[in-house]
Design goal:
This protein is 25% helix and 20% strand. With 528 residues, the protein is an alpha/beta fold. The chain has 2 domains: 51-256 and 387-517, FAD/NAD(P)-binding domain (3-Layer(bba) Sandwich), CATH 3.50.50.60; 260-382, FAD/NAD(P)-binding domain (3-Layer(bba) Sandwich). It is globular and about 70 Å long. 45% of the residues are buried. The model is unreliable at 1-31 (pLDDT under 50). It binds flavin-adenine dinucleotide, NADP nicotinamide-adenine-dinucleotide phosphate (NAP) and 2-acetamido-2-deoxy-beta-D-glucopyranose (NAG) (5 copies). One 2-acetamido-2-deoxy-beta-D-glucopyranose (NAG) is lined by residues 400, 402-403.
Length: 528
């Protein structure tokens, strides 16, 4: 049998290509936070944490639910989709077209949908005879079909209580991984058919606001919306609120597309919306038979989709940027891109279409001056942005990478390229009863979530201690200085070395607290 090692899986999941090549390319930065000493002053929570809301039933949210429930918390799980699995819920249904240009980051995923003013909650509505196209768009926006394609190969290490069969090949289909994550959900009675009163599918978190008791901040209020399509032209919705002491946000990293602002692309998209798609909408290659396709961006999605399209399309252009990617440089992907793919430099502009009646009549211009005509389809594979539409109060798009807020709380999100203001990329330093699960790149989601969840469980009980806010900001600023002083999209990238170091830190921290206060000790990441 092939060993399913977390370390190897990490590398594969981050770049999908053989470990040797990737491992050499990694430049993990080392986090230099010190281990808190028993006598050090620590952050004191202003209210006890009993009831925790978890957002997202992907592998991260499911692991977090299991860990917090076993630690004795009163837990609720909310998932906008109708099944568990997160990214690993493949459907033929595709997400809506990515808006071009990008929407503002605050509502790049969705604009929160709130109950009509003045209604008493819970509030339910049922609608009939609505426009079918409108309803389809509404359904897609609510559940957000996931960005995986039919032939996608994947790999993930097992979750401790659910071993993979011994003879399973190293690479499996996304469908198999989907079944595995569902099996894990079922194992803990969290699946859709388990009728678990603490688990809510079809339910999107719309807003999280501070809750006040006697004028003092005490926990959080979530506004929730359940949306169920009941027929081809009918649906029902329900809004309600729920109060929590703490919230774990496990909404994944791929909810909001990032489209490069290339001159003229918006005009092309307005005129030929059926011929321009983001990688999140790609499902299968047949529709591209005998077509000329331009793929923009050559990281995991672009390179893999290009390889698949090449056997169907008549010509595939793959446009890459000149500047090197610090972690996964282009050279890494080139050996896996079929030789008959036409590699081209960055696109400078999509030229005005004038009276063109087909997209192939338009021309594009590359930065090296060459013009290309005859493109039937464009696939934008330029990645995703982080955003949390339910926390608009902590999103400040006006800040640049070298700027911090001069007043008020430091934000979580600015331009969507990264998430900031977190201790250990987990606790929001301004409000440590908000925790983020699996936001890093260059780690293995199926393993890393275990340590994040265990740390949250221990910290919110008051066992493992967080440093004071001043101390968290001090180590944070030091880390930013070590990183070069400017936040950018690689801020959350770990790589296997740093991810391993972080997991060991979590183990030592949680276990030290368990020795002192009792509770479950956790095992370190297994070395392969
Ligand atoms: C194309 C592709 C290939 C990949 N290949 C691999 C691989 O081979 N191996 C690997 O280990 N990883 C791979 N990954 C990474 C993958 O994201 C992780 O394996 C895993 O899905 C992360 O789990 P998660 O729970 O953190 O997030 P997700 O799986 O993204 O789950 C987040 C969940 O939150 C829900 N949600 C979001 N917003 C809300 C809201 N407002 N209210 C309620 N629910 C909400 C979503 O519907 C979703 O179900 C790949 C990713 C992509 C895009
Ligand atoms: N099988 C798998 O394991 C698998 C498959 C697919 C995806 N994934 C995962 O899914 C996530 C998303 O991957 P992704 O490939 O969709 O996004 P991504 O990793 O963010 O890559 C986007 C790419 O587009 C490039 N780009 C941006 N603007 C461009 C422009 N104007 N012209 C040319 N290139 C441009 C970027 O280059 P710059 O760096 O220069 O900005 C980058 O290389 C990753 O975490 C990945 O690991 C995994
Ligand atoms: C509903 O109330 C909010 C806050 O009071 C207000 O900003 C908004 O304009 C109101 N909307 C309508 C439709 O009345
Ligand atoms: C693609 O082109 C080939 C060769 O010209 C032709 O035989 C085939 O029918 C075409 N397929 C489609 C779907 O147009
Ligand atoms: C590219 O080569 C592969 C085989 O390596 C072949 O199957 C495919 O049809 C070719 N594609 C094009 C566009 O020539
Ligand atoms: C520009 O790039 C294209 C595609 O790679 C290439 O064919 C062409 O020769 C290049 N032109 C210049 C001037 O370098
Ligand atoms: C941030 O960088 C921009 C240029 O990119 C510069 O104009 C601005 O002064 C910088 N701000 C700070 C606070 O350094």
């Amino acid at each position: 049998m092939r060993l399913r090692s977390p370390a190897l899986a990490l590398i594969l999941s981050s770049c999908a290509y053989p470990s040797i090549v990737c491992a050499e390319q990694q430049q993990p930065f080392i986090l230099n936070h010190e281990f808190p000493v028993r006598e050090d002053p620590f952050y004191e929570f202003r209210w006890p944490v009993h009831k925790v809301g978890i957002i997202g039933a992907g592998v991260g949210g499911l692991i977090t639910y299991r860990t917090l429930a076993q630690a004795g918390y009163d837990v609720r799980l909310y998932e906008r989709d109708h099944h568990p699995g997160g990214v690993w819920h493949y459907t033929e249904e595709t997400p809506l077209n990515a808006p071009i240009p990008n929407l503002p980051v605050v509502n790049a995923d969705y604009t929160p949908s709130l109950p009509p003013n003045g209604t008493r909650l819970p509030h339910e509505e049922e609608h009939f005879q609505v426009d079918e196209n409108w309803l389809t768009a509404e359904r897609k926006a609510h559940r957000l079909p996931k960005p995986v394609w039919a032939s996608l190969k994947s790999n993930a290490p097992h979750i401790p209580e659910l071993h993979w069969p011994e003879d399973l090949p190293w690479e499996i289909s996304a469908k198999q991984l989907q079944s595995y994550v569902r099996a894990f959900a079922s194992y803990h009675s969290l699946n859709t058919n388990d009728e678990n009163p603490n688990v809510f599918y079809n339910t999107r978190v719309e807003l999280i606001e501070k809750r006040f008791i006697d004028g003092r901040h005490h926990g959080w209020t979530m506004t929730l919306k359940e949306f169920i399509q009941t027929g081809p032209q009918s649906y029902k919705v329900k809004w309600w609120t729920e109060d929590f002491d703490a919230i774990a946000i496990a909404t994944g990293r791929y909810n909001s597309p990032s489209v490069s602002p290339i001159t003229g692309l918006a005009e092309w998209n307005d005129k030929f919306p059926e011929n321009i798609h983001h990688s999140r909408q790609y499902r299968r290659p047949e529709g591209f038979t005998n077509k000329t396709v331009l793929i923009i961006g050559a990281a995991s999605s672009g390179a893999e989709i290009a390889a698949e399209l090449n056997t169907f399309a008549s010509k595939v252009y793959l446009s890459t940027r000149v500047h090197p990617h610090p972690h996964y440089p282009l050279e890494l992907f080139i050996p896996f891109i079929p030789k008959n793919t036409t590699m081209i430099p960055e696109v400078k502009s999509f030229n005005p279409l004038g009276t063109a009646t087909k997209m192939s009549e338009g021309t594009i211009e590359l930065f090296n001056g060459t013009k290309i005509a005859g493109i039937d389809h464009v696939l934008v594979c330029t990645g995703f942005r982080y955003t949390y539409p339910f926390l608009p109060q902590y999103i400040n798009p006006s800040l640049r990478g070298n700027e911090t807020a001069s007043e008020g709380p430091q934000p979580l999100v600015t331009d969507g390229s990264h998430v900031r203001s977190l201790h250990l990329d987990l606790f929001y330093i301004e409000e440590p009863t908000l925790a983020f699960i699996n936001i890093n790149g260059g780690m293995q989601s199926f393993v890393y979530a275990e340590y994040l969840a265990a740390a949250a469980a221990s910290v919110w009980k008051g066992h493992a201690k967080l440093p004071t806010q001043n101390e968290m900001w001090r180590t944070y600023s030091q880390r930013l200085r070590d990183f070069g002083g400017i936040f950018e999209k690689h801020w959350l990238f770990l790589g296997s070395g740093a991810a391993d170091g972080e997991m060991r830190y979590f183990v030592a921290w949680v276990n030290e607290a368990a020795v002192r206060y009792g509770g479950k000790q956790i095992n370190g990441p297994s070395k392969a």
